[in-house]
Design a protein that fits this description.
single chain, alpha/beta, Leucine Aminopeptidase, subunit E, domain 1, six-stranded mixed β-sheet, 5 helices, 39% helix, globular, binds adenosine-5'-diphosphate, Macro_dom, O-acetyl-ADP-ribose deacetylase activity, hydrolase, O-acetyl-ADP-ribose deacetylase
């Protein structure tokens, strides 16, 4: 019996994906930022930010902890939900791999709670947060493969050729 979801790789802008849930590489404030976070809020409109603010007020006054995930509406995006997760900042001195793995696991857990069957992920932490792309791709692919979930398709949406190559390499190495 196959346990894991089907993995697909796409090169492009995650805000254009037609999936049940789009994962956002947010920061702990949940109030928006640059990179994919900024793109999701720009494309999705103010409804997402309004819901993030409400979540912050009700549950995450001190911020969403690193490695955790929480869902909001997707506003104008062609998705039903945005799942916001906070990746770790890359550290040369401290191994934060488990926190990065936790982002993928927790996002899939939230997706399961929502009943999402198709989920699009960006390469979490590999932008402003500085995680080396090859290692970020390895953790992403290994973690999704190892997670029990009802999600049927996980689509990694890679913004540039380097990211696409790194994820291709990781999926190629698996049997
Ligand atoms: P982080 O702070 O977690 O590093 P970033 O948004 O800076 O988050 O970058 C995460 C990854 O998302 C990077 O590989 C970046 O190239 C990519 N990215 C940026 N914009 C988009 C987008 N619109 N769609 C998909 N991926 C994107």
């Amino acid at each position: 019996m196959s346990t894991g979801p089907t993995l697909t790789l796409v090169r492009g802008d995650i805000t254009h994906e037609h999936v049940d849930a789009i994962v956002n590489a947010a920061n702990s404030s949940l109030l928006g930022g640059g990179g994919v976070d900024g793109a999701i809020h720009r494309a999705g409109g103010p409804e997402i930010l309004a819901e993030c603010r409400r979540l912050r007020a009700s549950h995450y006054g001190r911020g969403l902890p690193t490695g955790r995930a929480v869902a909001t509406t997707a506003g104008r995006l062609a998705a039903r939900w945005v799942i916001h997760t906070v990746g770790p900042v890359w550290s040369r001195t401290e191994d934060r791999s488990d926190l990065l793995a936790s982002c993928y696991r927790e996002s899939l857990r939230v997706a399961d709670e929502l009943g999402a069957r198709t989920v699009a992920f960006p390469a979490i932490s590999t932008g402003v947060y500085g995680w080396p792309m090859d290692d970020g791709a390895r953790i992403a692919v290994e973690t999704v493969r190892a997670t029990r979930t009802s999600v049927e398709e996980v689509r990694f949406v890679l913004f540039d050729e380097r990211a696409h190559e790194a994820f291709t390499e990781q999926t190629r190495e698996l049997p």
